[in-house]
Amino acid sequence: MKEAILIILAYLIGSIPTALIISKKFFGIDIRDYGSGNMGATNTFRVLGTNYGTMVMVIDILKGAAAVGLYNLLPFYIHNELERTNFMLGLGMAAVLGHVFPVFANFKGGKGVATLFGMVLAIQPGIALSCVLVFLLVLFLTRYVSLSSILAAAMLPVFVLWIWNEHEVFYRVFALLVAIMVIVTHKKNIGRI
Question: CA-CA distance, 186 to 19, in Å (whole number)?
């Protein structure tokens, strides 16, 4: 029962519509009416500029990390590594779903990449930073944020399964599903690339 409450709370944290709040507070607009129509950091960078895009990205990353950190509220998970990892994955995915389908913004959110990064950063910092390096390298070479996101996500299962050799089955499945999810949510961008 307590786990279910925390999963719901993680979803609500993920549902905080950062880009929408900032676009309305500082510009009096709905970010979803501009650019790609997406409520994520990339569209905020495009429409509102670097400062506000950075603000949205950082807060969206923190949403994922904060949701994962909810496991600390249940002492059982602090001392049980396997159960803790699985519960952290559940909390993080609830936050990502909240970002993509936010209850506070008519279920029309962003693609969830920044929140997903915050989640992975809180669970496995080494893997998260490896994905960041891929993202930055592709961005430097191509200048395409969407392509950088896609390739960084595609590398997640490679890092989890082979390079970091993570043994937790649920984590391996999660990595594969994340790669598929990011590619699917970026299908329009793939067409433009």
Answer: 18
Cα(120)–Cα(46) distance, integer angstroms: 25
Q: What is the pLDDT of residues 78-133, one digit of tens each?
A: 888 888 888 999 999 999 999 999 999 999 888 888 998 999 999 989 889 999 99
Q: Kindly tell me the number of DSSP H helices and DSSP E strands found in the chain.
A: 11, 0
Task: Write the pLDDT tens digit of every residue in 74-93.
Answer: 988 888 888 888 899 999 99
Spell out a b/e string for 13-29, using b for 16 or more CB atoms within 10 Å of the CB, else e.
bbbbbbbbbbbeeeeee
SS3 186: coil
CA separation for the pair 130, 186 (Å, rounded): 21
CA distances from 44 to 59, 115, 138, 141, 151 (A): 12, 15, 20, 22, 21
**Burial group, residue 140, by CB count within 10 angstroms (0-12, 13-18, 19+):** exposed
Complete DSSP assignment for 35-78: TTS--SHHHHHHHH-HHHHHHHHHHHHHHHHHHHGGGGGSHHHH
- The span from the CA of 38 to the CA of 151, in Å, is 20
Euclidean distance between CA atoms 29 and 13, whole angstroms: 23
Q: Is the pLDDT of residue 10 over 70?
A: yes
